[in-house]
Amino acid sequence: MTFGVLAATSSSVSNVQPGVLGFLVVAGIGVALVFLLRSMNKQFRKITPDPSATPSTAAHADEAASGPQPPG
After folding, report:
1. 46 vs 37, 42, 43, 54, CA distance in Å?
2. In the structure, how many helices (H) and strands (E) does the chain have?
3. From residue 8, how far is each of 15, 17, 38 by CA, in Å?
4. What's the CA gap between 38 and 25, in Å, rounded?
5. Which pTM was predicted?
6. Is 52 helix (H, G, I), strand (E, B) or coil?
7. How far apart are the first and last CA of the chain?
8. Residue 22: enclosing H or E segment and its boundaries?
């Protein structure tokens, strides 16, 4: 019986629009996204690279001066 009532009411309402509430929800999600991205960028700037993982500066300078090496 409940299904019949829901089916009858849903077919008679065909002009549903998002309205102001839908806009406010989407705008709120957008504002939250901006703040989350700003916070993420701050956290990424705090990360320092591991000094043992970087190549030595002399080897890097020699590689940059000689240019790209051909494969083979």
Report:
1. 15, 7, 5, 18
2. 3, 0
3. 15, 19, 48
4. 20
5. 0.47
6. coil
7. 77
8. helix 19-46
pLDDT of the chain along its 72 residues, tens only?
566 655 655 556 678 778 999 999 999 999 999 999 999 999 999 998 887 876 655 555 555 666 666 665
Read off the amino acid at residue 19. Answer: G
The Cα 64–Cα 58 span in angstroms is 10
Q: What 3-state DSSP class applies to 2?
A: helix
Residue with tokens 């309402």: 13
Residue at 31: amino acid letter: V
The alpha carbon of 24 is separated from its chain's Cα centroid by a whole number of angstroms, namely: 21
Structure tokens at 14: 């065909």
Residue with tokens 């001066």: 65
User: In the numeric block, which tokens belong to residue 37?
Assistant: 């991205």
